[in-house]
Amino acid sequence: MILISNDDGYQADGIRTLMAVAREFGDVVVAAPMQQQSGKGSAITITSPLRAVMVKDEPGMRVFLISGTPADCVKLALDQLLDGRHPDLVLAGINHGYNVGVSTLYSGTMGATFEGLVHHVPSVAFSYGDYRTPHTDFTVCEPFVRDIISRVLSKGLPAGVCLNVNVPYDKGPIQGLKITTTSMGLWTNEFERRTDPHGVEYYWMTGYYENETPDDNTTDIYWIDRGWVSVTPCKVDQTARDNMVKITELLT
Amino acid sequence: MILISNDDGYQADGIRTLMAVAREFGDVVVAAPMQQQSGKGSAITITSPLRAVMVKDEPGMRVFLISGTPADCVKLALDQLLDGRHPDLVLAGINHGYNVGVSTLYSGTMGATFEGLVHHVPSVAFSYGDYRTPHTDFTVCEPFVRDIISRVLSKGLPAGVCLNVNVPYDKGPIQGLKITTTSMGLWTNEFERRTDPHGVEYYWMTGYYENETPDDNTTDIYWIDRGWVSVTPCKVDQTARDNMVKITELLT
Questions:
Q1: For chain A, what are the domain ranges?
Q2: Quick one: which of A92, B61, B163, B213 could link to A112 by a disulfide (CB 3.0–4.6 Å)?
Q3: CATH 3.40.1210.10: does it fit domain B2-182+215-251?
Q4: Looking at this predicted complex, what is its ipTM?
Q5: What CA–CA distance (Å, rounded) separates B26 from B23?
């Protein structure tokens, strides 16, 4: 059984594509946010309770809408909604837009995927560079989604590793698949200040992404820009192990 | 100038302690969430605008309350609220409760800290094991907070590295400071199902944390349990570099 979530919500085209391809491999349970949850990262809901509404219950396909974040969705499904079954796979996406570079910090798609990983389920995030909603055509993603699901189902993933898959949009013919690292960078000019009709200021998050490692030919953005599907193996641990000695010298 | 945020909100005792100690080193600007933001990780607010209310404007101390997440607070401060000044330090906390192990994924305290890191500001998260609010006594944290601020201000931090500091509670006399790694584990039995007065089910997040690496004598929890202040150097990048070859073999 394959558990699917996303961060764009159940109405998004991307999750429909993912559901259709996953269904070729067996039973599917969807636990998707009721509302758009982009930018929620690994956020969880502690101070209010969650609701789960089953909106589809067909042979081989159950769909739950959850009143929380992507991480909430996977947590709640694993703990309460799968009738005690352990999924063979957790999939998240297909996200409308890339989850690359430092933006993976804020990615609800990755939040759902990390949740599967933490619970020892092979987990894969899928994202596609086309941001247009609701009429994004995910057809180009399908063979890669199918191939990766097939390989991960049959061979598993190394302990403690999940995959972050990004499919290029508008970069010419897709060249194939590259195993990559996460590029570093940051969002700059992040806010637009406006004044409301009552004369009070407010701020919209906006800005543009600055890739700080454009020449690093191991990275996600480098290969996506050249037409390759980027697959980054990811882990939960963020310990800066290379700097343990330096920090010891600094602080003790 | 030191920029301070947290995830417990401006009313929390922990941020008051941090503000007082930071003030010994120079000007302080606080950008704290208006509301409790525990569990928000690196979540950001995209689909609604943010408000910033200045509630204190004294010589050397400005306080803004922000209608968003901890990461929003640091982003908005850096982009809009510091009159073009670049802070010498971003501090987050002192959190009411540990941010260790896999829980760092969900930590708004770490979300604020990573935001400072991404923007190339030396950044430190402080957390204390005492969960009791609103009457937590943070006195025991003060000498460590003071010492770490002093050292990081004078020597900086290595590029791409921030610190996650956790002070033990109720573990006997504090033994000193250890540089540690993030332990691995997961939350289990994560939800309690209830039925509302209208007969509809809902779910509260709860459960207990299972440390999966209890014998690893490099980890945060190992040393906190033995009375040491844990300092974990952290980075944004979650690429599982040790597994690049394995994933290449699996997928290509």
A1: 2-182+215-251
A2: A92
A3: yes
A4: 0.96
A5: 5
Chain B residues whose beta carbon lies within 8 Å of the beta carbon of residue A166: none
Q: How many CB atoms lie within 10 A of CB B154?
A: 9
* Closest to A116 (Cα-Cα) out of A12, A55, A29, A206: A29
For residue B43, the 8-state DSSP code is: -
**HSE-CB of A180 using CA atoms within 13 angstroms:** 29
Nearest CA in chain A to B207: A79
Q: Is the Cβ–Cβ distance between B12 and B96 less than 8 Å?
A: yes
Chain B touched by A45 (CB under 8 Å)? yes
Q: Which two tokens stand for residue B146?
A: 């003071």
Q: For residue A17, what are the contacts with CB-CB under 8 A and spacing of at least 6?
A: A94, A138, A139, A141, A142, A145
pLDDT tens track for B209-231: 999 999 999 999 999 999 999 99
For testing contact with chain B, the best of A8, A37, A42 (most B CBs within 10 A): A42
**Residue of A239, A242, A249, A252 best to disrupt the B interface, most CBs of B under 10 A:** A239
Question: B48-70 as b/e, with b when 16 or more CB fall inside 10 Å?
Answer: ebbbbeeeeeeeeebbbbbbbbb
**Interval B11-31: pLDDT, tens:** 899 999 999 999 999 999 999
